[in-house]
Amino acid sequence: MKFKKAIALCLSAALSVSLLASCGGNTTSSAGSADASSAGSASAAGSQATTVDYPTKDITVIIPKNPGGGTDVSTRGLLQYMKNYIDGANFVPTNKPDGGGVTGMVETANAKADGYTLGAVTVELAMFPHQGKCTVTYEDYAPICAQIAAPAALIVPADAPYNSLQEFVDYCKENPGTVQMGNSGMGAIWHVATVQMEKEFGIEVKHIPYPNGTADIAAALTGGHIDGTLADPSSFVSQVQAGTLKILAIMADERSVMFPDVPTFKELGYDMTIRSWACVVAPKDTPAEILQILRDAAEKTCNDPEYQEYLMNQGIDPVCIIGDDCYQMMEEDHAMFGEVLAELDV
Amino acid sequence: MDAILAAFGNVFLSPLNLGGLIFGVAVGIVIGALPGLSVNMGIALLFPLTFSFQGIGGILMLLGIYCGAIYGGSITAILLKTPGTPASAATTLDGYPMAVKYGQPGRALGLSTFSSTFGGVFSAICLVLFSPMLASVALQFSKPEYFALAVFGISIITSVSSGSVLKGLMGGLVGLIIATIGIDAMSGQMRMTFGTTYLLGGLSFVPVLIGLFAFSQVLTSIEDSYNETYVKHDVKLKRVFPTFADLKKCAITILRSSVIGTVIGAVPGTGGDISSFISYNEAKRWSKEKEKFGDGAPEGICAPEAGNNAVSGGAMIPMLTLGIPGDGATAIMLGALMVQGMQPGPLLFQNQAPQVYTIFLGLMTANLVMGLLGFSVIRLFVKVINVPKKYLMPIIFVMTFVGAFAYNNSITDVFVMVAFGFLGYFLNKMEFSSSAIVIGIILGSLAEQNFRGALMMSDGSMMIFLEHPICAIFLLIALVSLFAPILGPALKKVFKKPVKQ
């Protein structure tokens, strides 16, 4: 009896402490954004001097996706390592996934440009504006770095009768309209990639959408319900390593660090690059000095072997796309998806 | 053998690992009990902490949160008719009447704690013994099977709406319509978004749930207790462990629900919310006292609670054996495992046996710790019933707002919650069932997406649903259970009359 009481007591103490801790966490984050305006003016005043005093407060980072998804995990990972390279930085990630991610991206764009509100944006930023789903574009942001830029990989079951991109294309030509290709939703990126491939090679496949993401495609492919997919390979790593699935080619400029034996579409003679990226960005008018601090830190983080290993462990190819390069990537993809989606009519 | 010994060492001999696990379970129970705080959120928040654990300790903590949160949802579901997680929505049906109407909160919590623990441990044992088999069953599920499972689930509407079948079906339709809001992933078009950004991703389910159950309950209570002079309740519990008679009565239900939960957990993309309703329905189907369901039947508490906690072991199966996460929570755990240098998938069992056994043992321990913590705090929790309504209701009222906001950090969600709160209040008045709407929302998109996806696979031929055996069987059972409440009494009349004459 005494023992039970002791347990109950300890437990309730632990619960109240953890509750307090979580409440405390929330208040600091909201206080962080509330105080951001005063801190912003302070740092604006400070920026007239040669160095800015940044950061002096918590930095809120709006993640426009659910906790646990690829965007969330890679963004939290980047922040976790990046804070080691900025003195006194404390990032507070906040998930705002409603509106299919648009709300969070819009909120970042409209936030006070003082460096205390950052956000993640995803490749949908280059797609949604053309589909009438979103009013902000890449022009509303000052990018810091892309933490992920996963290329489309052509993945098929290991026992499929084709072993190269060419053989796959030939097979599709012999069997028009019957090869079932999984995608992550019509009008979403991997569907666009598959349509691009159809156009490039003059083939016709059957599009099967799996709207809840690539994990479902992996299950369908492993279970033998579909014939292939063009998707980010990270969800398929364990099946590829176990030899139940194989990757025929990837749509990237350079070979993947994780799958060095897989050829790119480019080296096979087809200039196609479709990547699913997520970037950490600041609102566009953020002071240059602050952007510089963040970009320098991001660059050091990207070259940190521990961080690279962290990404590789999760099936993500480490990339180092900083600042202006990142802006250029967003700009190019915006133009590319504009053309493709206009033809696609979704 | 070495691997098993190493696993024992990892779980029990390291104070940090065991402490992390217990801490995880405790945090999980709190997160689960509070509406608006989701399992995924809890796991994602503590995910960075796993980096600082050497080896597998962090994973044990996440396992603890996962199990604890599924159980925690039942506490508020039973005591306040406010399911802390969608997986506990079914528990309100019988848990709340038993706790409040019949004044037996200790019995209700005791049953739910026992069933949850049993379901969790059962599924952990299944994970150890039948992983490869269950994984191959899970891989059999293609779009037609998912569609059939969803239809099977939807057919439950007729049995949860105890009042009028017609009103239940109407509620279910409202739920199905709500599920169509947002970007239609099968065509890329926007449906019923009315040009707003908020509706692009559809209505958020958790705020709707909080509104339909908690907010409307507050309104009803305010109405009931208006001018009421406070009668001092003093619920004191003689025992927290369920009686032998109760356990004997529920044994088969608990076992059946544990099997259902484990299998549904193993199928990627389906989880505790679906398995708890299906378990509830099966408990009612096989019960001899169907009329007691919805009015404090002990099986009506045991079934959903065993069913949703059994999902925990089931969901580990595709994650560990295939490297494919079945839901958001296991997706984060997959990431955490990979950060620790493990590569879940077909090779895991060969290459990293000690870690696999540690996870097995950890899951089992987490469920047992959950039961232990649960039983030891029941006495504390039932005191909630003793709090006068004039103090309790304002607190819940505030919690509904906090919970609705916390889920997505969105103020629009709060408005949605309030709107559904008033809707739920009037629906209750008119004896519609909120659960029917909830089932419609949970299963609507699963049914629709997979129906259309299956037809894409078959080029529009309906035969695909009959050619897949699992699918055909599910559809047949669904058809029978949908019409049984309507045809059953009619048939009885036809067949019984001649006998009497």
Care to describe what's here?
The complex is a heterodimer of chains A (346) and B (501). Chain A has two domains: 163 residues, D-Maltodextrin-Binding Protein, domain 2, CATH 3.40.190; 121 residues, Periplasmic binding protein-like II (D-Maltodextrin-Binding Protein, domain 2, 3-Layer(aba) Sandwich). Chain A is built from eleven helices and eleven strands. Chain A has a six-stranded mixed sheet, sandwiched between helices. A five-stranded mixed sheet of chain A has the order 7-6-8-5-9, sandwiched between helices. The termini of chain A are far apart. About 11% of the residues of chain A have low confidence. Chain B has one domain. Chain B has 501 residues and is mostly helical. Chain B has 23 helices and two strands. The chains are: A alpha/beta (346), B mainly alpha (501). Chains A and B meet through helix 1, helix 3, helix 4, strand 7 and helix 7 of A and helix 2, helix 3, strand 1, helix 15 and helix 17 of B.
In terms of topology, how is this protein built?
The complex is a heterodimer of chains A (346) and B (501).
Chain A: H1 2-34, H2 36-46, E1 59-63, H3 70-82, E2 91-95, H4 102-110, E3 117-122, E4 141-151, E5 153-157, H5 165-174, E6 180-183, H6 189-201, E7 206-209, H7 214-222, E8 228-231, H8 237-242, E9 245-250, E10 275-283, H9 288-302, H10 305-313, E11 321-322, H11 323-344
Chain B: H1 2-13, H2 15-33, H3 39-46, H4 49-52, H5 57-80, H6 92-101, H7 105-139, H8 143-154, H9 157-160, H10 165-179, E1 182-183, E2 190-191, H11 205-224, H12 244-266, H13 272-286, H14 298-322, H15 328-339, H16 348-351, H17 353-381, H18 383-386, H19 389-408, H20 411-429, H21 434-457, H22 464-467, H23 469-500
Antiparallel strand pairs in B: 1-2
Helix pairs in contact in B: 1-17, 2-5, 2-17, 3-5, 3-15, 5-6, 5-7, 5-14, 5-15, 5-17, 6-7, 6-14, 7-12, 7-14, 7-17, 8-21, 8-23, 10-21, 11-19, 11-20, 11-21, 12-13, 12-14, 13-14, 19-20
